[in-house]
Amino acid sequence: MIRGLTVAFAVLLVICAAGWLALRRADIPYDTLETVYASNASQFMTLADGLKVHYRDEGIEDAPALVLVHGFSASLHTWEPWVDRLDETYRVVSLDLPGHGLTRTPDLDELAPRYFADRVAEVTNRLDIETFTLVGSSMGGNTAWQFALKYPEKLEGLVLVAASGWPREDGDDRPFVFRLLENSFARTLMRDLDMTSFMSSGLQDSFTDISLVTDVMVERYVLLSRAPGHRDAILTLATARDDREVATPETLSAIRVPTLILQGEDDRLVPAPNAAKFQAAIPMAELVRYENVGHLPQEEIPDASAADLKRFLNTRVHSVDAANREDVPVPADSAP
Length: 336
What we know:
14% strand, 8-stranded mixed beta sheet, alpha/beta, 14 helices
């Protein structure tokens, strides 16, 4: 009896190991990924610490500048719908954060929004962009508000799109994959596996209209995550939260720049009520809510969200009244 159970268990282990090996996926060299995901607008910059950064500098060179920072596990591709609607009026710089897209991976101990904020500062300095409006989505929004606190002299405006940063309250309704990644054993097993099904599920949780989650989109997320070091970076960011700076009303009250907050009401990744916390904490903030929209309004409703950004820039940032910001009224909370 015991011998039979031992043999059965051994067979089961062999089957599981064979399945795990069959699902393993190797890293993809950056050169290979660049042939697919770099565009004619793509450029690369090597920073002082040796990090090679992928960015796009589009639009009108002498126009007011916008700098766009994506969220967790994403890439600058998330901003393409906005770039198409903004590049005839503005200079638009989008970049892949370290460990994402086509940007290389630094020391994993460095990875955090405050590190990303410093890299944004270095990139814009190297591009001779003295002042600009910084736009951040999700983790990129966390990066953006931390940038505003550290480099206030560089900002003309701040835009937070479903920004993260507030401590998570009791209860955890995040998609299953994010909770699974917090288990060290699960991370070890998943690190080299084919993540297509998990990526597809996570992306569907990011949109209300899941028809926008195409096979092409899922494949892009999966393949870019297989760039050397990226899977380790994503796992590190998903779990290393203990030493991160979190948003507080006292901290954010120091931000003294016109601020726009955009939030989908059906966001399953960042609690939608957090947007109101940002509005209450930042003195010059206005909030626009979108009904029936998820975590990525720049992709789900690009026309409406880009129009709200343009209105904000025209009336709050680059208007004649912007020179005397204390007198600029902050519009009331609105929802289309």
